[in-house]
Amino acid sequence: MIATKSKMFKMTGRLGIITATLFCAGSAFGQDPAKKDSVSTIPAEVMTVIKPSCMPCHSNEGRDKPKAKVNFSVWEQYNPMEKTMLAASILDEVKKGSMPPKGFLKSHPEVALSETQIAQIAQWCESLKAKP
């Protein structure tokens, strides 16, 4: 009987851990696990700007220092607070004109941001900053 209880405890314990892990992974702070984080996905129109102008440095294929600051390849892995903070930083850098950097633009002038593209990024960043 003791061996049976021990086996039951091991099974129940594992099942409990698995259940708790799945529940916690699927629901941050009591949110419905079926709902996606509302700031997870970069809209397609913004991605068309980010891909050529930002991702050469800020992606898995980019250089270490830039991708350590923000890595668009793993954007969906950032938590909502990180995304909000990164959005503020992205907005600041783009509005100042320091991103993409002038050195990069010398060799890749085709990825310079137009006023319309800056406005697209700014609107997206503002929308992320407004999310809780």
List the helices and strands and how they pair.
Blueprint (H helix, E strand, L loop, with lengths): L1 H25 L17 H10 L10 H6 L10 H17 L5 H6 L7 H15 L3
Global structural class: mainly alpha
How many domain modules? 2
Order of SSEs, N→C? HHHHHH
- Calculate the mean pLDDT score and round it: 77
C-alpha termini separation: 53 Å
Radius of gyration: 21 Å
Q: Beta-strand percentage?
A: under 5%
* Topology, number of strands: 0
Main sheet makeup? none
Secondary structure: helix percent:
55-70%
What is the 3D shape? globular
* Low-pLDDT stretches: 5-39
Q: Number of helix segments?
A: 6
Brief write-up:
By secondary structure, the protein is an all-alpha fold.
Note down, in words, how this protein is organized.
With 132 residues, the protein is mostly helical. It has 2 domains: 30 residues; 86 residues, no CATH class. It is 60% helix and 0% strand. The chain contains 6 helices and no strands. Helix 2 crosses helix 6 and helix 4 packs antiparallel against helix 6. The radius of gyration is 21 Å and the shape is globular. It starts with a helix and ends with a helix. About 27% of the residues have low confidence.
Structural descriptors:
132 residues; mainly alpha; 2 domains; 60% helix; globular
